[in-house]
TrEMBL record:
The protein's name: Rx N-terminal domain-containing protein
Record-linked PANTHER family: NB-ARC DOMAIN-CONTAINING PROTEIN, OS10G0134700 PROTEIN-RELATED
InterPro entries cross-referenced by the UniProt entry: P-loop_NTPase (IPR027417)
Amino acid sequence: MDILVSAIVGDLISRSASFMISKYFQQQPDLDKIQQRLQRVLLRIDIIAEEAEARDINNQGMLRQLKMLRQGMYRGRYVLDSLRFQAALDEEQVSHSLSALPKSSAAKRLRFSRTGSGSSNREALLFGTNSNMREELQRMVDTLEETVSCMKEFIFFLESYPRIHRQPYGTYLVLDNCMFGRQTERERVLNFLLCPSVTPDLAVLPIIGPRRVGKSTLVEYVCRDESVRGHFSMIIFFPEGSLKDEGVVDLKGNYINGLVRHQNSASQTRLLIIVEIAEDINEGTWTRLKSLATSMTPCGGTKIIITSRSDRIVNLGTTEALRLDFLCQEACWYFFKSIAFGSINPGEHPNLASMAMEIALEQRQCFTSGPIVAGLLQRNFNARFWRTVAECVRASKQTHRLMFFFRKGHRLSLTSTQTFVCGKMHRCIVGDW
């Protein structure tokens, strides 16, 4: 009887295994074909986006359409990289399971699946079960292909816009000065500054966003543009906390608590005033600032940019407020990969790419600690160092999480290797948790 039961169970297991293997190999060609379609549509998106970035586009509708195209490109690249590096990631998990941090390594896939909010479809596609992988991937490729097919009018009108001179230099600044992913916002601020005001009143642009989203960085980058410096005779910056009740006395002779960032005597008298506040501004101070700016430039042309974390400054603007939010996870990975690998093809180093993806996804703010970590990885291009950085980032994040729950007096220890790396990096790779 036992022999019969064993034979039946063995036969069932054998049949089940054969069925699963045959089903896998039947689906694999379909997945390969879908990935090839994804590669082709991403190549078309790259061509359109690169050509658009080389043009001086001032149409807000086209800029929004270009932003949607970039978001689709980031998402597609992220999915494609994840599928490519998944095998290397699984191999890394097995080989690393006997290292100093077995629990963290074993939980690598779990942390990937928890990254981001409101992205359950993406998580199920990349790190969930294989039951709906092909369907989700097919749906995403269909969406990207439909997006590209709707760009015919965009491409037609794109040819009517002039090319931007010194485009490679501008692209370099966008990446190295942490302005990656803000091209649409940059163009909108430039249009506000350089285009004549539609009303005789003082033009004010509010920029709203959470802390460390890049409001000041965006304004600083725009102010470095040669066209802006040539348009305004003076750029004055009021940092956060400098505008008190007595903060504005005389813009003409005494710049109380204000910093003169740029002066151009050859330009017509036009002021650009940048005000940085945390929440709200005193009504009396705001009124005096506007009146003094108007008296300084009787011919008009003066403009004000005010940045804040509060929505209360919306009423101060004469145009629609510009709202900034943190970049999506896919864009952060694209940014991190570009710095860490540079001109090297990540596909030639799948193990390093899988570790880089883990490190990138551990960073909540890709513009604060992300460039520092990616720069360290690029200068030390070897698997041992990258694995050490991944362990340090992982352990440091866990330490910062536990600090919110442990009472004062409890100590949390790191291994000597992790402590050394964290010390050498001056805690820069931890980021803001």
